[in-house]
């Protein structure tokens, strides 16, 4: 029987689906509604000295007919009095004692940190999350990402918090940094119980072509926002992997955040080592109800694979995420077009011909639109299979027998790698390249 | 059986002839345009007689460049808006859409095309201007799709253009001969005004060119002549009773409907003779005008009809019934038509044969002949050295549309024997280029 319950760094929750600290967790009302809908935990909208917000706060990136593929905001932390939030934390815990309520915090002085930690503990919070990520507004005042980008400062503040706190502490990292392991290691050095990432990416989602102001527009101007949503997931996944494999941070529990919208996203974060996940944009787009899809999908995955708990598959992808030099150079795949399924759009041809390796041929007959693979030119790059609009039409077929393995690292050790500019060991030696005449056929009379 | 009441007002007429391809709203266009795959060497472009760069104009809609989208369309086809509505897109661009191969609904190219063109027409946004005056004058006979397209193209090249039109409106069969549920008169004429406003060709309406003297004058005054005269009236059947009252040609019937709307009286029982698209239109239109029994009578089998399958479906859905393998022998009636005497036919080794003794009579109050239009042979006979083929169609060079009399160019129905608006639009544009080449010895 698959069991979704977790114990994340000492914080227990009926499932790993948590709401990230953001507008959906602004009030006790919203959080109770979310728990009622099936969410297992919630990180309260960041508490601190209440702010004043601007009107016009969110912007988005659409991809063709998909809305909010990327999303940014210039909203600050909670603008509600602390007392109201604390009272509501108490109320939520009264109705939902088994759900995880985590207070996100952002203050300046040590005294403020100590005071607000006590207040949250007294209100019944199950854990704390330190907001060192917010890349807009608050960072101008020395908080949020201003801390997340300075590992030494981060370590010091985590140290203050760990001294004062009696409940588990999660340090939330900013991704606006070259090496995520720098703040990650600093958080661990400061004694944090867990890490969550990523906070939003500094962003401009677009410019209004009439007013020349960035979105979201505030009276003819704008500012950089924090970017999130499905578009950031790949970058966030890599940062999670960095921490999950780093020898200093790898034993610290990670709560994964960034573009999670469906069960597959959740499973991917868990496979890279996360013990819980946090969701914001998907809820801002579809409401709390999407948790039904997450829960159903993860449970089905667990049943299909025979897992009983989240821990059974947590981190299972990590051994397969290697450095490039350790990949098998003997592995060989080539594209295969299923002529029964092909609709003749020839996107694969255009992509391969102009964008890759000239390994797809047209029939030469306007009435026969199904292209064919020129196998000797195909390097197995996958591009055609990625652009093909038909399900399972272009597949990559394995051509090696799997018996041989040779990596760049091994070849380097043997001295079997190209080292000079025209080295005969070059991987692309002898690759087919069409003639200049083929490239300029519409300019036949061009003089050279 | 009839689903339609007799329209008593223009409003009721338009309700019965509800537009088959209504204008998309912004949201529908946004989602529909996003579905286009942007195929390489796209088959929809190949299928379009005017070769509009369809993936490009759809992408331009998607990216909010509606004016650029309209320009892409008009660059290839001066009847951009009309064609979006009246083209048989199911057998042209939309029929070629690759989505069909996976049983996915093809992109609604025609409606997207209208979405782009209607904006520039309604806002009267100028996309073209006449070329610098080159001092040459071209006469165009017939202001149909071929003639107007030829005029527009010639104006961009700097020619002075005068069009002589027999009727009182431009666009030919687009406004006079298209089923009213495909496009409204207002919409057709708005596009014509839009083009004329930008390019400034002259049209002399109610000016038929029919005698030798007129032709000689035109030949003297102009550097080249384009014939876009289309076809003549519906040909006689050559049957006894052909001249009875309420025996009408399909082309004349449609024209009456489009011009007089609800004022046209269609009686209860109608027989439509023919198996082409015009027959389907006439049958469907009779139903929509409130006729109770509409029979489509065709002398061959259903599968041998020239009409597109979807046009037959449309007529059936409007309430018409098909009657196949019947050949009319005589139109009966005392003054006004009261019935048609048929004989049954069968196909023997591909030859159509009548079945002896199978005569029968079907009652009706009206007969619509959708059996083809006459050619303008009498006019062509007045032009020296202009060859016609066996079907009395003008013989032209397929690229330049120049006839065997070098001063005369021709396109549209007079050359192809009767095709779509889009074919005329293509021919006229191509002929303009042909004229330009010929005059400049290019």
Structural notes for this entry:
The complex is a heterodimer of chains A (448) and B (442). With 448 residues, chain A is of the alpha/beta class. Chain A has 14 helices and 18 strands. The longest helix of chain A has 15 residues, at 291-305. Chain B is α/β, with parallel strands linked by helices and 442 residues long. Chain B is globular, with a radius of gyration of 23 Å. In chain B, α4 (54-62) runs antiparallel to α5, α4 (54-62) packs across α8 (109-122) and α6 (80-86) packs antiparallel against α8. The model of chain B has no long low-confidence stretch (mean pLDDT 96). Chain B starts with 9 loop residues before the first helix and ends with a helix. In chain B, the strands form three sheets. Chain B has a five-stranded parallel β-sheet, with helices on both faces. A five-stranded parallel β-sheet of chain B has the order 5-13-6-7-8. In chain B, β9 and β10 form a beta hairpin. The A-B interface holds A 64-65, 341-347, 349-350, 362, 366, 369, 389-390 and B 30-31, 34-35, 37-41, 43, 46, 62, 98-102.
Name some characteristics of this structure.
heterodimer, A: 448 residues, alpha/beta, TIM Barrel, Alpha-Beta Plaits, 2 domains, 8-stranded parallel β-barrel, 4-stranded antiparallel sheet, 14 helices, 18 strands, 17% strand, B: 442 residues, Fumarate Reductase Iron-sulfur Protein, Chain B, domain 2, FAD/NAD(P)-binding domain, 3 domains, 5-stranded parallel sheet, 14 strands, globular
């Amino acid at each position: 029987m698959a069991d979704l319950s977790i114990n994340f760094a000492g914080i227990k929750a009926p499932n790993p689906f948590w709401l990230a600290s953001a507008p959906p967790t602004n009030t006790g009302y919203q959080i109770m509604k979310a728990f009622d809908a099936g969410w297992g935990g919630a990180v309260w909208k960041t508490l601190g000295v209440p702010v004043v917000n601007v009107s016009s706060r969110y912007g988005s990136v659409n991809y063709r007919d998909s809305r909010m593929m990327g999303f940014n905001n210039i909203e600050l932390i909670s603008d509600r009095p602390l007392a109201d939030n604390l009272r509501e934390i108490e109320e939520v815990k009264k109705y939902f004692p088994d759900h995880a309520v985590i207070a996100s915090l952002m203050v300046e002085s040590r005294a403020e940190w100590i005071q607000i930690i006590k207040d949250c503990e007294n209100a019944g919070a199950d854990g704390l999350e330190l907001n060192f990520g917010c890349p807009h507004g608050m960072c101008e005042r020395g908080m949020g990402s201003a801390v997340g980008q300075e590992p030494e400062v981060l370590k010091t503040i985590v140290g203050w918090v760990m001294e004062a706190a009696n409940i588990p502490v999660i340090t939330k990292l900013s991704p606006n940094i070259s090496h995520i392991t720098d703040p990650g290691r600093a958080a661990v050095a400061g004694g944090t119980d867990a890490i969550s990432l990523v906070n939003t990416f500094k962003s401009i989602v677009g410019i209004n072509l009439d007013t020349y102001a960035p979105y979201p527009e505030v009276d003819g101007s704008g500012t950089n926002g924090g970017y999130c949503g499905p578009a950031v997931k790949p970058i966030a996944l890599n940062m999670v992997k960095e921490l999950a494999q780093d020898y200093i941070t790898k034993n610290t529990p990670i709560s994964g955040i960034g573009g999670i919208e469906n069960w597959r996203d959740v499973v991917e974060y868990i496979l890279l080592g996360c013990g819980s996940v946090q969701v914001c944009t998907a809820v801002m787009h579809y409401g709390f109800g999407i948790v039904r899809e997450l829960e159903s999908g993860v449970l089905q995955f667990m049943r299909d694979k025979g897992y009983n708990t989240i821990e059974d598959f947590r981190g299972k992808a990590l051994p397969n995420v290697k450095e490039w030099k350790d990949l098998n150079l003997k592995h060989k795949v080539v594209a295969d077009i299923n002529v029964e399924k092909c609709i003749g759009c020839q996107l694969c041809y255009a992509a391969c011909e102009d964008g890759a390796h000239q390994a797809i041929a047209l029939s030469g007959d306007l009435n026969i639109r199904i292209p064919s693979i020129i196998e000797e030119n195909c390097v197995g790059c996958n591009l055609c299979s990625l652009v093909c609009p038909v399900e399972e039409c272009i597949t990559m077929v394995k051509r090696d027998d799997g018996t041989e393995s040779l990596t760049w690292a091994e070849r380097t050790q043997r001295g079997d790698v190209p080292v000079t500019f025209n080295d005969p060991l070059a991987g692309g030696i002898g690759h087919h390249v069409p003639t200049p005449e083929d490239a300029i056929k519409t300019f036949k009379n061009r003089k050279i | 059986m009839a689903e339609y009441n007799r329209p008593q007002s223009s409003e009721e007429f338009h309700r019965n002839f509800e537009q088959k391809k209504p204008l998309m709203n912004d949201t529908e266009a946004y989602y529909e345009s996003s579905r286009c795959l942007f195929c390489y060497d796209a088959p929809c472009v190949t299928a379009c007689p005017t070769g509009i760069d369809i993936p490009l104009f759809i992408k331009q809609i998607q990216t909010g460049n509606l004016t650029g989208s309209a320009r892409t369309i008009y660059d290839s086809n001066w009847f951009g808006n009309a064609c979006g509505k009246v083209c048989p897109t199911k057998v042209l661009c939309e029929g070629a859409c690759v989505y069909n191969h996976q049983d996915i609904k093809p992109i609604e190219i025609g409606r997207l095309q209208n979405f782009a063109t209607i904006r520039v027409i309604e806002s009267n946004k100028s996309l073209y201007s006449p070329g610098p005056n080159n001092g040459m004058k071209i006469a165009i006979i017939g202001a149909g799709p071929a003639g107007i397209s030829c005029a527009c193209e010639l104006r961009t090249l700097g020619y002075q253009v005068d069009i002589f039109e027999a009727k009182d409106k431009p666009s030919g069969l687009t406004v006079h001969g298209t089923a009213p549920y495909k496009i409204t008169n207002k919409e057709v004429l708005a596009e014509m005004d839009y083009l004329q406003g930008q390019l400034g060709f002259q049209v002399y309406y109610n000016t038929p060119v029919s005698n030798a003297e007129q032709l000689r004058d035109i030949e003297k005054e102009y550097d080249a002549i384009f014939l876009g005269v289309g076809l003549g009236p519906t040909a006689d059947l050559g049957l006894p009773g052909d001249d009875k009252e309420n025996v009408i040609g399909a082309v004349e019937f449609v024209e009456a409907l489009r011009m007089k709307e609800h004022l046209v009286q269609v009686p209860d029982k109608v027989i439509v003779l023919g198996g082409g698209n015009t027959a389907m239109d006439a049958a469907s239109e009779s139903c929509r005008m409130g006729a109770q029994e509409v029979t489509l009578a065709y002398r061959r089998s259903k599968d041998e009809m020239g009409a597109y399958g979807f046009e037959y479906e449309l007529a059936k859905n409007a309430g018409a019934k098909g009657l196949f393998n019947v050949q009319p022998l005589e139109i009966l009636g005392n003054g006004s038509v009261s019935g048609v005497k048929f004989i049954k036919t069968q196909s023997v080794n591909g030859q159509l044969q009548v079945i002896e003794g199978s005569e029968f009579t079907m009652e009706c109050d009206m007969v619509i002949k959708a059996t083809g239009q006459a050619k303008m042979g009498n006019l062509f006979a007045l032009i020296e050295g202009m060859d016609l083929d066996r079907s009395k169609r003008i013989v032209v060079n397929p690229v330049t549309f120049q006839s065997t009399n070098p001063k005369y160019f021709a396109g549209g129905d007079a050359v192809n024997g009767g095709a779509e608006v889009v074919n005329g639009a293509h021919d006229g544009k191509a002929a303009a280029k042909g004229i330009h080449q010929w005059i400049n010895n290019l």
